[in-house]
Specification:
The chain is 46% helix and 20% strand. It has helices at residues 10-24, 53-70, 80-101, 139-148, 152-172, 193-204, 224-236, 253-259, 268-271, 278-293, 306-314, 331-342; strands at 28-30, 33-35, 41-43, 75-77, 105-114, 120-131, 135-137, 179-183, 211-216, 240-246, 263-266, 297-301, 319-321, 329-330. It has an eight-stranded mixed β-barrel, surrounded by five helices. It has a two-stranded antiparallel sheet with strand order 1-2. The longest helix has 22 residues, at 80-101. The structure holds ligand C2E and magnesium ion (MG) (2 copies). Residues 110, 126-127, 138-140, 143, 159, 181-184, 214, 244-245, 301-304, 321-323, 328 line the site of ligand C2E.
Length: 343
């Protein structure tokens, strides 16, 4: 980190930074190889941007990221827009803490149906946060934030308890729809997660076969052995484990084989164009074939049209999930929908 004192003129700072970048980017020879380095610089001001060293560095850091986005060898001043973003993230973090206390979370349920006969074979529980002033905030936004600020375990606990409770309630009414919850990559690092899940199901009296978890590929990046042990414990207890958003991460075949999973969910991005793109259709066909060779059931997610549905049925996909069949719905609405399908 570089501190410039007694400067308040942006022009002078810009000139200084250009000279600095020029100096650094001079090629140097190392063992006969010419090396050229470039630097990206982020600038923040005291006391305008922040009043203490830690925040000041964070502002500069944020500006560096923007400089890198723009292109290598550039510099950026921390802007008020970035300031706003940091503030709103901070505010959102606080609100998220409150959300648990104030009961602002609710699980919605989206059906997964058999590709051959459209029977409902399961439901995915998706978390919804109704913010008091902003309305619904997308989980794609607040889940990563919850992971960052250490709230994911509490939120995950809510999801587990709520889904298990609802599943048990339905089971007691004679409705056997397996429920899947999403478990984040951070949660799976908790060594006790498998036992926590099993205990919760036992506590509610929900048979294990009516519960499953979905993990994204990033879950397999860290602590492989522990993750493997967690997955084994769950599967031995009769709880299915799915890999979610397959194809968007590193999609390692060896991990999938070694992990011994039950279900593979093909990410929506591969399915959007299967009606128009020959290549996409072939990719999906091979993912399905490969999965089935490894003994995995395949779910296609985000299906919105009959054409897509029909293509996937022909390709022998096992299960389909998407707006075409139903959007994620509050529990009561899901139950109505399900009952209607049974008639
Ligand atoms: P996901 O697990 O892959 O969930 C599927 C997402 O696709 C859901 O978005 C769902 O509403 C959406 N979707 C379903 N069918 C269609 C369709 O036909 N078209 C389109 N465009 N979208 C469709 P949602 O509910 O916004 O959730 C986004 C992501 O947030 C989830 O992706 C999941 O990774 C995460 N998430 C949601 N709930 C939880 C949770 O309880 N815990 C954790 N850890 N993550 C969650
Ligand atoms: Mg999922
Ligand atoms: Mg997914």
């Amino acid at each position: 980190n570089l501190i410039l004192t007694d400067v308040d003129d942006n022009q002078a700072i810009s000139e200084f930074l250009s000279r600095l970048q020029n100096a650094v980017s001079q090629p140097i020879l190392i063992k006969g190889v010419q090396i050229k380095t470039t630097i990206s610089i982020g600038v923040s001001f005291f006391p305008g941007d922040a009043s203490n060293a830690e925040d000041l560095l964070q502002c500069a850091d944020s500006a560096v990221h923007q400089a890198k986005d723009i292109g290598r060898n550039s510099f950026q001043f921390f802007s008020s827009e970035q300031h706003r973003q940091i503030l709103s993230r901070y505010q959102m973090g606080n609100d998220l803490q409150q959300a648990l206390v104030n009961n602002e979370f609710e699980l919605y349920y989206q059906p997964k149906v058999c590709a051959q006969n459209r029977k409902t074979l399961g439901a995915e529980a998706l978390l919804r946060w109704k913010h008091p002033t902003l309305g619904f905030v997308s989980p794609a936004e607040f889940i990563p934030l919850a992971e960052d600020i250490g709230l994911i375990d509490k939120i995950g606990h809510f999801v587990l308890c709520e889904a298990a409770r609802k599943g048990a309630e339905w089971f007691q009414q004679g409705i056997e729809v397996p429920i899947a919850i999403n478990v984040s990559a951070k949660q799976i690092l908790d060594r006790n997660i498998a036992h926590r899940i099993i205990n919760e199901l036992n506590h509610e009296g929900l048979p294990h076969r009516l519960f499953s978890i979905e993990l994204t590929e990033t879950s397999f990046l860290h602590c492989l052995e522990e993750t493997q042990a967690t997955i084994s414990t769950l599967r031995e207890a009769g709880i299915e484990v799915a890999i979610d958003d397959f194809g968007t991460g590193f999609s390692s075949l060896s991990y999938i084989r070694n992990m011994a999973l039950d279900v593979l969910k093909i990410d929506r991005s591969f399915l959007i164009n299967i009606d128009s793109s020959d290549v996409d259709r072939k990719i999906v066909a091979s993912i399905i074939q490969m999965s089935q060779v490894m003994g995995l059931k395949v779910v296609a997610e985000g299906i919105e049209t009959e054409v897509q549905f029909e293509l996937l049925r022909e390709l022998n996909c096992d299960l389909i999930q998407g707006y075409l069949l139903a959007r994620p719905m509050p529990a009561a609405e899901f139950l109505d929908w399900y009952m209607n399908q049974q008639e």
